[in-house]
Structure formats: structure tokens, C-alpha cells
Amino acid sequence: MKLKGKSIIVTGSSQGFGLAAAKAFVQEGANVAICARGQEMLRIAQEELSSFAMGKGKIIAMTVDVIDSNEVGRLVEYVVSEFGGVDVLLCSAGVYGPKGPIEELDWTEWSKAIEINLNGTVLACRTVIPHMKEVGRGRIIIMSGGGATKPLPFLSAYAASKAAVVRFAETLAEEIKDFNICVNAVAPGALNTRMLDEVLEAGPEMVGKKFYKEMVKVKEQGGTSLEVGTSLCVFLASDESEGITGKLISAVWDPWRGFPERLDDLKATDIFTLRRIIPKERGKDWG
Asked: What's the chain look like in SS3?
């Protein structure tokens, strides 16, 4: 088992991708702590994980709001006391936020989405880092999304926050690389989860006709399998990914299984990072 004995925290893990990732971690022998805001759904998720684990690893659950520093702090301290430390953090908590033209959106809701997606990610990271630094190792995996690499009209809070967490991952990776802590962002593909249903319920008038049409197609075709993204998360949580850091990795499109053989190139270049495009990269000579 690739993760036997490792201690992992997964935020936003009472459903959807977070829960699927927790299952994948448990399957590989990890001790897993799940957290979310909804107590009842978290209880159900814990029961499901416990039956799924079949003695492979320990499961703990705690109701946590990822933007509350006291609650996040209590979670991390509890995990350290129960598991003996934190080897891996997967930041999966996130929301789409309000949908529609920016000038018509409720500002409080827009700001709340930024707070959950960006601040909640940063808060979880800064809380576990001291424990990882103390032992001189760790893995941090941050869930990105389509909004990180292309515009998403009418979903501005989601797009802005997802681009922000990717740049945060790149920045944090440089900041803590001397402590053998690797930080990467993951794009899991178009998933058929509650967030997809949320877009479809909003309708084309609120999310834009083009995006709505794309999401209808995803729904009809079933979307990207959760296993594709969770397999990448297992890889990044394991010792197989040693030295890979500061990257935005597409679970669907990137040849990540071969990354260990390309480690020197990954370290020496800006491949799989967010960067500005200049004219010469598009065959233009603008002087």
C-alpha cells in the first residue's frame, strides 16, 4: 500500500471529490481525517469511510469551517494527537459562489466565495506547515479548477479564487522547499458532482450559454471519473512524487505518472505553471 501509516487531512470531504479522495487514501493504508461544515453529512461520510477502510487505517471526522482559524487549529491539533503528525494535507473545500454578471452579484456572497476558496486554503496550509517543518517533510495538495487557466464569465469569484490558489501553491512551494515539503495544485477534470448540478440549476442566463452547454454535455456523458483525479492525489501524497513541487497538474491531460523520470526537467523549467504569454511564443515579432 502506497500510503501505509501516513496521516492525511482532507478538507471539504463530506461529499464529492473530497470524499472520493479520502476513500482512495484509506484504500492505500492511510489514516485519514475528514472535515466539513455540515455535521450530518460528515457523520454519514465517516461511517461510509469506516466501513470502506476495513482496518486499513484510522478514520476521524470533525465539523470545521475552513475560514475559522480556531476550528482549523483544533482540527490539526486533534489529528496530531491522534495520528502522531500530519504527513499530507489535501485542500478540497470549495464553492462556485454567486453566478451572473459581476455588477449584479451580491457582494457579500462574492467575497464569501473568495474567502472559502482562497483564504480557507491558505489557512489550512499555514496551520499544518509548522508540524511538517518540525519533522522535515510533508505534502500539500491544493484542488484547482477550470477557472485557474481560462476565463469563466459569470463565475468570476470561482475563476479568480482558483487562479489565486494556484499561484499561492507555486509561491508556497518555493517558500518551504528547503524543508522537504512539496506543494502542488491539481485540476481533476470536469466532474459530475453537486457543483455541476449547481451550474445546471442556475441555467444559461446565469452562467453563460457556452459554459452551460459544456456542462450539459458533461452531465450527459458522465464527466471525468473521480478515480482519475484521486489517483493523481494518491501519487502526489506518496513517496513516488518525491521532489515534484510547485506545479499545476491536470489529472486528465498531463503524463504525471512519468514525472519521476522527468524530475530534472520539472525542477529546471516552468513547465506546468501559470505564466504570461508573450508575442514571440505565438510567432509574433512586435519588437
From this structure: CCCCCCEEEECCCCCHHHHHHHHHHHHCCCEEEEEECCHHHHHHHHHHHHHHHCCCCCEEEEECCCCCHHHHHHHHHHHHHHHCCCCEEEECCCCCCCCCCHHHCCHHHHHHHHHHHHHHHHHHHHHHHHHHHHHCCEEEEEECCHHHCCCCCCCHHHHHHHHHHHHHHHHHHHHHHHHCEEEEEEECCCECCHHHHHHHHHCHHHHCHHHHHHHHHHHHHCCECHHHHHHHHHHHHCHHHCCCCCEEEECCCCCHHHHHHHHHHHHHCCCCCCCCCCHHHHCCCCC
**Burial class (CB within 10 angstroms; exposed 0-12, middle 13-18, buried 19+) of 58:** middle
Q: Which pLDDT tens digit goes with each residue over 4-34?
A: 999 999 999 999 999 999 999 999 999 999 9
Q: How many CA atoms lie within 13 A of 278 on its CB side?
A: 4
Which pLDDT score, from 0 to 100, does residue 253 have? 94
Instruction: Report pLDDT digits (tens) over 43-60.
Output: 999 999 988 777 778 999
User: What count of Cα atoms within 13 Å lies in the side-chain half-sphere of residue 225?
Assistant: 4
Average pLDDT on 234-254 reads 97
Note whether 263 and 243 are within 8 A (CB).
yes
Picking from 51, 29, 30, 49, the residue whose alpha carbon sits closest to that of residue 41 is 49
Active site residues per annotation: 158
The C-alpha atoms of residue 169 and residue 175 are separated, in whole angstroms, by: 10
Q: CB count, 10 Å around CB of 180? A: 16
Distance of CA 243 to the CA centre of its chain: 19
